[in-house]
């Protein structure tokens, strides 16, 4: 598992790096960002992985997410992967921002031509954590996951499917029921095919309905988010968690939108919340 | 003084706005960013103006500067102007990142063809503060100024020329002696002409040598900054302040570079330092 260093920059009492590697999951060169706070020579630090939303790469949250001060304070390594495979060989949906490159939806695609490279589930669940553990001073037993919008969907579904791997799960304005909203129906229908039964493991509300459980959950959602009604439908997560008895702290944030102006506002809160679980 | 609202977004318990107006100083439409923390209805808040560096607009610090949490905490309004006039009518130096658009150097140009629009000194010293005072809940008697690189040069020179206007002055990796470094010689020579005597009011070290004084000064400078030796020459500011008896806290930050990864690291420190002076 070779790693190529693209850049390493000192920031907030740590190192913000950007790296790439040839991924066996996607068959492409994948780029990701990692922030490592200064630490004792033999320390093994807990990890928070942040999954980004539609159209993003590793760099949006790296530039605008305002996570480094909190990660340095709590001794957390922060990992920000890309949102899809990239490269000229990777099929894309030209001029569709919500499908193809930048829109992997954290699934392992099963339909042609997507199934060859669009394997972001395997990449995030298996390959990337192993790569991170091999190259960075992490404690693989202390991992948490979060994300925004499509990446909030990714964090919730990956967290719900792997409760023994991720100690805590949070999300910013997540897509909570992709099977029933335009972004999700388009993506799951084309990546996974028409059989909606196959979509349920990629749908947080469906996973909870089918019995998946987390001890608790933290979600922030802006009330001025243009996508709230049509695409995000936070109330469905609130209802599913209530029915399932999941202690979900789902905070409707008055006046906030879907942008990094919103995410950065609550990022330090999420880092501190995860740190409380990871450092317990 | 009419103001056009381009966007207003809720962030960190306040409003991050972007506005534009037709500037009488530059004769062009000028865009700037303002962050206003939530405040009591009749409150008048102090202001920190941040001047950006080469190639930047208002948006670089707005996206990457990480100032909002600190400004909200201390009740500070943060103003981020552009770095030059813009528009098709404005003369530019094609393919020169360090002259023309994006490189106004905070001077009032006296040489053709620059003198018509490149009047960033008047814009920052006079027009913009009056515009801000007319449209935002500020206390004009409580103003401070900071900036990065070319904007650090702007903050130092504007602060040194107007010690009664700005209660405190700080800078991130400023150009301290532009008369003697390539960036500054090029810009001052073309905006102001060959007579170097005219450059001295746009040169922080020269201003101090000529008698300008500030009660104190805060500067952060990364030791891994590629521009340190050739363009910034921090040691010359250290020497000038020592000779002049200016209480300058000039901090060489080990391993930090010239980027917003560096600026964002120390931004909250600078905001808190200014707040201590503004809210005293």
From TrEMBL, chains A, B:
Keyword set, alphabetical order: Hydrolase, Serine esterase
Cellular component, GO, one term: cytosol
Sequence intervals crossing the membrane: none
Pfam families (alphabetical): Esterase
GO biological process: formaldehyde catabolic process
UniProt-annotated catalytic positions: 149, 225, 258
GO molecular function: carboxylic ester hydrolase activity; S-formylglutathione hydrolase activity
Catalysed conversion reaction: S-formylglutathione + H2O = formate + glutathione + H(+)
Ranges for region Disordered: 1-20
EC number assigned by the record: 3.1.2.12
Composition bias, Basic and acidic residues: 1-11
Stated family: Belongs to the esterase D family.
Functional summary from the UniProt entry: Serine hydrolase involved in the detoxification of formaldehyde.
Record protein name field: S-formylglutathione hydrolase
Organism: Erythrobacter longus
Lineage start: Bacteria, Pseudomonadati, Pseudomonadota, Alphaproteobacteria, Sphingomonadales
């Amino acid at each position: 598992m070779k790693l190529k260093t693209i850049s390493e920059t000192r920031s907030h009492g740590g190192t913000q790096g950007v790296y790439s590697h040839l991924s066996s999951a996607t068959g492409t060169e994948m780029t990701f960002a990692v922030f490592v706070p200064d630490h004792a020579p033999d320390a093994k630090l807990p990890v928070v992985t942040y999954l980004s939303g539609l159209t993003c790469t590793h760099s949006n949250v790296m530039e605008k997410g305002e996570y480094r001060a909190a990660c340095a304070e709590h001794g957390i390594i922060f990992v920000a992967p890309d949102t899809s495979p990239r490269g000229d060989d990777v099929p894309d949906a030209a001029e569709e921002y919500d499908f193809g490159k930048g829109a992997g939806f954290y699934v392992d695609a099963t339909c042609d031509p997507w199934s060859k490279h669009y394997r972001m589930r395997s990449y995030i669940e298996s390959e990337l954590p192993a790569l991170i553990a091999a190259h960075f001073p992490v404690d693989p037993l202390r991992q948490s996951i979060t994300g925004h919008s499509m990446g909030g969907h990714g964090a919730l579904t990956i967290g719900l499917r792997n409760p023994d791997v991720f100690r805590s799960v949070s999300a910013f304005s997540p897509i909570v029921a992709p099977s029933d909203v335009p972004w999700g129906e388009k993506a799951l229908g084309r990546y996974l095919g028409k059989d909606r039964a196959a979509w349920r493991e990629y749908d947080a509300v469906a996973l909870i309905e089918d019995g998946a459980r987390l001890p608790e959950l933290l979600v922030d959602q802006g009330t001025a988010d243009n996508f709230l009604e049509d695409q995000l439908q936070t109330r469905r997560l609130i209802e599913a968690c209530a029915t399932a008895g999941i202690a979900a702290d789902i905070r409707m944030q008055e006046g906030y939108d879907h942008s990094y102006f919103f995410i950065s506002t609550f990022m330090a809160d999420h880092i501190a919340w995860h740190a409380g679980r990871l450092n317990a």
